Structure formats: C-alpha cells, structure tokens
C-alpha cells in the first residue's frame, strides 16, 4: 500500500496511522529544508517508505523519532536530513532558539550579542552564516569571524569582544560526515561552554521554535564580520605564554587536515620559535580527511605520516592538533617503538604542563612582596590521572576535579591550569576558557626548549616527574558500538551487580555519580576504587557512540624503573579484569 498522501492515512489502522504520521513529519521537514543535498536524500527515503520499504521506514524513525540533543557543549551528529541529524533546518532552529534565549536574558535596553566561528568541515561555513543571519534577524548583534579558524580563537573572541555568547561550528575530531554546534556564554560565565541550567533553557527555546515556527519564516538580517585584529589579538596573547626560547627545537607539525596551521604558524613566529617541519599532506584544511580513518590524534594510525616525516627530519618532537585545533597530541623519540616515536598520553602531557604551571606560580609567589606561597587551582576531569592532584599538594595549590568536559574544568575557581586526558589542556585561563591546542603547544614547546638548553629531553623530564611525585600509569578501554543500548546494558549491569574485584585486585567501594556526588552534578559515571589505591572510571562518551573505561594506578616505592614496573603490572591487571567485566 502506498502511504504518501495524508488522505489515505486518516482512515487506516493504528499501525498505518503511525507510518502516515512519520511521513507527514518528514514531508513537513522537506518543506523547510533549504539544502538541495539533504532535500534530495530525504525525498528518496520518503518515497521508499511510502512504498512500504521497511529499511526506509526504519531510517525515517531513526531520523525523526527524536531530536539531536545538547550534549557535551551543544549539538553534534552526522550531516543528514532529520531532527536527529545535523542539517540547515536543525541549525536554523538552534540559532533562533539561542537568539530567543539571549534576548530573554538580556538586561532591559541592552542588545544581546554573539560571535560565531567555523572550521573547515563540510557545511561549517553555511551553518555559521545561517546562524549569523537568523541571529541578526532576531535582534541579536551577530559577529561572524573573518574566515575559518580554530575553536580556541572563537573561545578567545567571546571575551575579547565582550559579547554575550559564542557559537563554534565544528565537530572537532569526529568522523568526516559529522558536524556540531558548540555554545559559549560571556559575562559572568567568562566565555566557558554552556552548563545547566542554561543548556536546558536554550534547548527549551529551540524546541519552541521547532514546534511553533517554520524555518523559511524566520527573519534574517545583515550581520557583522569581525576584523582580522581579533585573530591578531589571540596570536599576541598566546605567543606571550612563552619566554624567548633558550634553545630551538627540531619539531614536526601536523594539522590533521584541520584549520590549526595558519594560526599556529603565526603564534610560533611571534614567540620566536623556528617553524617546524610540516606533514605536508595534512596541512591544508580538508573536511574529507583523506589520509586518516578518523581525524583524531588518539586513534591508531592517525600520526603515521607524522612519524614518517619525523624520522626523515630527525625530529626531537612531534606536535599534532586535531582538526579544530582545540586538542594537542605530542610524540617523542622512542627507539623501542616500531615507528621510532611514542605518542604521549593526555595524562603525561597534562602532568608536565601542570608541573610547569605550578613552577610558574611558585616563581611568581617568590618574586612577590611578602612570604606567601604559590596560589591558584590546578583542575582536571574526574577521568584524568590523579597525578595533577599530587603536583598541587606538593606546591600548596588548590586542586579541583570536575565532571568530564571543559565546560566544567574551565569553571574551577582561581584556575591556573586545567586538563583532561582526551588531549585537552587549558594553559591560559586569563584569555581562553576552553581547551586550546595552540596555546598548549606553545607552552609545551617552551618547556622542551628549556629542557634542551639544560641538556635534557622530555623523556628525561617525565622520569624526573616520576622520581618526585611517583609514577602514575593510566590506560583506557574504548568500545565503539552501533547500538547505544549496548552501553546502557553494561552500565545497568555494573550498577545492579557491582564487582567485588577487578582481575585479582579487590574492590574497596564503588561510587555511582548518577545522582551527583561530593558536590559534583549528576553524571552517568561509575568510579571503582580498589584496595591498592587504584581507580577505574566507567562512562559513556559524551560525543561518540563509545563506552569508555579509564584505568589509573601509581607507585612511589623504589627507583623510577621499579615504580614504572610496579605501576604497569597493576595497570595490565586492571585492563584484563575490566575487559572481562564489560564483555
């Protein structure tokens, strides 16, 4: 039976009514969609579903039964037609909803304002210009950044321009057909990403727009374009994180087909560093990401071309940004590796950058009048290594652990450094309240320059860290799924039957953070503490269809070599035990 007309639907059985309602929803979406590509794709699905094609009907349910919800910092998903995908209709509704929120929150007589940035992904520019025009049409002062730029520049611009909000169109390191919509708030939020209750209020406004208004009827107006001086101000502020280099470093750099290089190059030049050797095939922005399976420096194979380039150049350091340059990956020479290099974990880089921040705070205190000690807070997410807490304790600094995501890390009071293990580092909270792979690269390069001037390498420095604070070993199990209910089943099973041991190591207790814990907001996270002091965290990913398990242990006994061996042996046992528990 053909179900492509409303007349047929209303007289049929309930199952037919449901199918017809689905087709009505899809046809209504078609009538609002200005994108020829997603229009054509949806027409094919509607026609097939109307002819009774079960696969097409299932696909329409997947696209329209739900709306893409605000996640880690806004919206993120695959580009396709439908309310549960990223597309021009959804983005237009989001822009109108955010505009309504900003207008409602503005003080009487104050014009709300927003700055909008975009990267080199598919549809990033059109999503950004749609947003700017709709925001302007709603009475918001809308400022579009002058060209495709890294996410940290947008985060910087929110504070630099003193606007009420920021929108960055990016899906960061997600697969090539994904895009996203990150939202920041200015004013008292200091340019951090949205958190509760603002996310829920914005989501409610978006839903109201989607329910009551049609996208073609949303008014549009002219918007401003920010001057290049905004980018230059970011470059100046970021270059200022480094003192003049004491030694030049032979480095290799890759942008992983993202937008990082132009800005990074200008920052390195302004800071006085020699420019690195480039991974030429990955320097220009390309939303297809042709040389990598996933444009994420954490993924196996993503840095293979960097290793090849580094071997040819005899490089001392590899610097990699993800496609929107808010993350930083670092690799160092390692003769024991098949590639000749080893990528450091986010926890290793976070530990040495945190140590650097603590040292700078101590120097500042020593040069200040009086006899006060170092001040400030080191912060990291709850799934990151406990190593940073050890640094804070050693320097008399405050420590804060937060929920996962820089929307939480960036809000730690008196923050001087923050990080999370997924290669995100906040080294310049005075100007950027988000992870920033460019400023982190400058800070790291400055550290390596100092070490080289003193005859040391970054590998030596990691050993010095282990000698002073203990050796911290971290691991991660990441399980990608096609059915999100698989993750729900694993989390439910662990809650209903908490493990008594992980491998051969007994469990001391399990903290369920779903209702909040020790001042932390509710989160779908389980924290397993073991009797030997080790820790396991289990949570669904906030940005990808993955279950993530984080393993952390440490040793302070014996020599550095003995500490490493003990911690790595425990880590291997935790890994074995958790794989059994989640299988």
From TrEMBL:
GO terms for molecular function: magnesium ion binding; phosphopentomutase activity. Transmembrane segments: none annotated. This is Phospho-sugar mutase. GO terms for biological process: carbohydrate metabolic process; purine ribonucleoside salvage. Residues 479-564 form the Alpha-D-phosphohexomutase C-terminal domain. Residues 68-208, 234-331, 366-454 form the Alpha-D-phosphohexomutase alpha/beta/alpha domain. InterPro entries: A-D-PHexomutase_a/b/a-I, A-D-PHexomutase_a/b/a-I/II/III, A-D-PHexomutase_a/b/a-II, A-D-PHexomutase_a/b/a-III, A-D-PHexomutase_C, A-D-PHexomutase_C_sf, A-D-PHexomutase_CS. It comes from the Bacteria. Its cofactor is Mg(2+). Belongs to the phosphohexose mutase family. Keywords: Isomerase, Magnesium, Metal-binding, Phosphoprotein. It comes from Cryobacterium fucosi.
């Amino acid at each position: 039976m053909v179900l492509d007309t409303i007349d047929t639907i209303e007289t049929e059985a309930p199952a037919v009514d449901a199918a017809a309602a689905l087709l009505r929803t899809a046809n209504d979406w078609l009538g609002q969609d200005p994108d020829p590509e997603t229009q054509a794709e949806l027409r094919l699905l509607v026609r097939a579903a109307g002819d009774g094609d079960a696969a097409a009907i299932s696909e329409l349910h997947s696209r329209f039964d739900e709306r893409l919800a605000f996640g880690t910092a806004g919206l993120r998903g695959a580009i396709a037609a439908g309310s549960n995908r990223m597309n021009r209709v959804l983005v237009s509704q989001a822009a109108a909803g955010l505009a309504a929120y900003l207008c409602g929150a503005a003080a009487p007589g104050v014009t709300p304002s927003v700055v909008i940035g975009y990267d080199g992904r598919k549809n990033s520019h059109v999503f950004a210009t749609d947003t700017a025009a709709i925001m302007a049409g709603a009475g918001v002062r809308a400022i579009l950044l002058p060209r495709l730029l890294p996410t940290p520049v947008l985060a910087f611009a929110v504070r630099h321009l003193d606007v009420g909000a920021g929108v960055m169109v990016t899906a960061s390191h997600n697969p090539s057909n994904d895009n996203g919509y990150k939202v920041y708030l200015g004013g008292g939020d200091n340019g951090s990403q949205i958190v509760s209750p603002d996310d829920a209020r914005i989501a409610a406004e978006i839903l109201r727009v989607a329910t009551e208004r049609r996208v073609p009827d949303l008014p549009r107006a002219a918007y401003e374009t920010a001057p290049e001086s905004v980018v230059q101000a970011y470059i100046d502020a970021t270059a200022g994180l480094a003192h003049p280099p004491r030694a030049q470093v032979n480095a290799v750099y890759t942008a992983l087909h993202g937008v990082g290089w132009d800005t990074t190059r200008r920052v390195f030049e302004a800071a006085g560093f020699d420019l690195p050797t480039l991974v030429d095939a990955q320097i220009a922005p390309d939303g297809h990401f042709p040389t990598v399976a996933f444009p994420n420096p954490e993924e196996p194979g993503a840095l293979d071309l960097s290793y090849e380039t580094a071997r040819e150049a005899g490089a001392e350091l590899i610097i990699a940004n993800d496609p929107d340059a808010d993350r930083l990956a670092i690799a160092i020479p390692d003769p024991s590796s098949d590639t000749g290099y080893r990528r450091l974990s986010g926890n290793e880089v976070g530990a040495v950058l945190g140590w650097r921040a603590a040292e700078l705070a101590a120097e500042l205190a020593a040069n200040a009048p009086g006899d006060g000690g170092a001040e400030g807070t080191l912060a990291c997410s709850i799934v990151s290594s406990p190593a940073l807490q050890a640094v804070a304790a050693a320097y008399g600094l405050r420590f804060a652990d937060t929920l996962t995501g820089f929307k939480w890390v960036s809000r730690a009071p008196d923050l001087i450094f923050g990080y999370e293990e997924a290669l995100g580092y906040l080294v310049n909270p005075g100007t950027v309240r988000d992870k920033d792979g460019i400023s982190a690269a400058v800070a790291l390069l400055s550290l390596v320059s100092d070490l080289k001037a003193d005859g040391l390498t970054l590998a030596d420095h990691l050993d010095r860290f282990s000698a002073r604070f203990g050796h911290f070993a971290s691991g991660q199990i990441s399980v990608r799924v096609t059915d999100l209910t698989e993750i729900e089943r694993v989390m439910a099973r662990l809650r209903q039957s908490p493990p008594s041991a992980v491998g051969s190591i007994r469990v001391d207790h399990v903290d369920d953070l779903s209702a909040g814990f020790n001042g932390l907001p509710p989160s779908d996270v389980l924290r397993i503490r073991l009797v030997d002091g080790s820790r396991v965290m289990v949570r669904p990913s906030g940005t990808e269809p993955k279950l993530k398990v984080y393993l952390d242990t440490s040793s302070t006994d014996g020599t550095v070599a003995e500490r490493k061996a003990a911690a790595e042996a425990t880590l291997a046992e935790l890994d074995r035990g958790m794989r059994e528990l989640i299988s």
